[in-house]
Design goal:
Blueprint: H1 3-6, H2 35-38, E1 56-65, E2 74-84, E3 89-93, H3 100-107, E4 115-120, E5 123-124, E6 133-135, H4 147-151, H5 153-157, H6 162-175, H7 191-204, E7 209-213, H8 221-238, E8 241-246, H9 249-255, E9 258-262, E10 269-274, H10 289-301
Parallel strand pairs: 3-8, 3-9, 6-7, 7-8
Antiparallel strand pairs: 1-2, 1-4, 4-5, 9-10
The structure holds adenosine-5'-triphosphate and magnesium ion.
Length: about 300
């Protein structure tokens, strides 16, 4: 952490977002029950050249989905308070269906919550895409686009000319372990490479805040550990603010400064655990006594 960056986000962090490529989902009671088609989870943000620090603050966040027809309303989130300091890395864990993705979609401006506030760098982001770079739960690489064309998709959607977006993307292929694969098709990449490409696309957007929804969930244990080391290094290089959703307590403890546990639906914060272990952290960090103690606390909070 860089304490000096947390207090007062620089002016760039407050600039208004570029034109949003998708409209936010309405929270009105008569909202259509087809949000995926109405607001596809494409990577969304304003591309800016250099990342700047911004904090994330969520207060009393509440969201009730009101499906059409006879289905009962679903209270997904109920009074969630969450703070990620500028340049911090916070992980959210919680059981399936507790509202983790709903929380991220609110921060991405794709879903207007039924209650509470959500700000990024002090700006209200409810229903306003463009303040964070959002990696949805599915990687959403387009099979008809080669790796480089997939990488620039979000930037293109936000209005950056293709050549300019490609010029920015090329150096990142090296950094993301994808050098030489710029012209590969998505099906020619391994699972880990696909995830790195999806992350590259998210990084390329240049937003100060990354919200990542279970980016490694589909990977095997060995690949995941390699990805932790790699993401830890990438994060330490430029210290963007990260909110990282996972089911995996070890993953959260390996990566984050702080782990927040949500209850089963409706999601609310049941505990928070600081993880002050030095970085870079080896894979074995989860076997250290201090970390095992924290893991016990988290598992108890999860009801395990
Ligand atoms: N668009 C929607 N319309 C109606 N209900 C929804 C919608 N999106 C999510 N829900 C409901 O809200 C609850 C929370 O969903 P959400 O996707 O946020 O959970 P999650 O914690 O991300 O789960 P997982 O860990 O399985 O990804 C679930 O009960 C889900 O069925
Ligand atoms: Mg989810």
């Amino acid at each position: 952490m860089r304490p000096g960056r947390a207090a007062d986000p620089p002016p760039q962090a407050r600039r208004p977002p570029a034109v949003a490529p998708v409209a936010p989902e309405s929270a009105a009671p008569d909202a259509p029950d087809a949000p995926e088609s109405a607001a596809p989870d494409a990577p969304v943000t304003a591309p800016v050249a250099a990342p700047v620090a911004a904090d994330v603050d969520v207060r009393g966040l509440h969201h009730t989905f009101r499906p059409h027809g006879s289905r009962e309303p679903v209270i997904a989130l109920d009074g969630v308070d969450l703070h990620v300091p500028a340049g911090g890395f916070v992980s959210v864990v919680g059981p399936s269906g507790c509202g983790k993705s709903t929380l991220l979609r609110v921060l991405a401006g794709l879903l207007v919550p039924t209650g509470g506030t959500a700000t990024v760098g002090g700006e209200d982001v409810r229903g306003r895409p463009g303040h964070v770079a959002y990696l949805p739960q599915r990687d959403l690489l387009l099979p008809w686009r080669r790796a480089l064309a997939n990488a620039v998709l979000g930037a293109e959607l936000a209005g950056v000319p293709r050549e300019e977006a490609q010029r920015r993307a090329r150096p990142l292929f090296e950094r993301f372990g994808l050098a030489g694969f710029e012209r590969a098709w998505p099906w020619e990449l391994s699972g880990g490479m696909r995830q790195r490409l999806a992350l590259l696309r998210t990084f390329l957007l240049g937003a100060p805040v990354l919200v990542l929804d279970e980016p490694f969930a589909a990977l095997d244990a060995i690949t995941r550990r390699a990805m932790y080391a790699w993401l830890g290094e990438v994060w330490m290089d430029d210290r963007r603010t990260v909110l990282f959703v996972t089911h995996d307590v070890d993953e959260a403890l390996t990566l984050a400064d702080r782990v927040v546990v949500l209850s089963g639906r409706p999601g609310r914060v049941v505990t928070e655990v600081d993880v002050p272990m030095p970085r870079p952290r080896p894979a074995t960090v989860v076997t250290e006594a201090d970390v095992v103690e924290r893991k016990r606390t988290l598992l108890e909070a999860l009801g395990g």
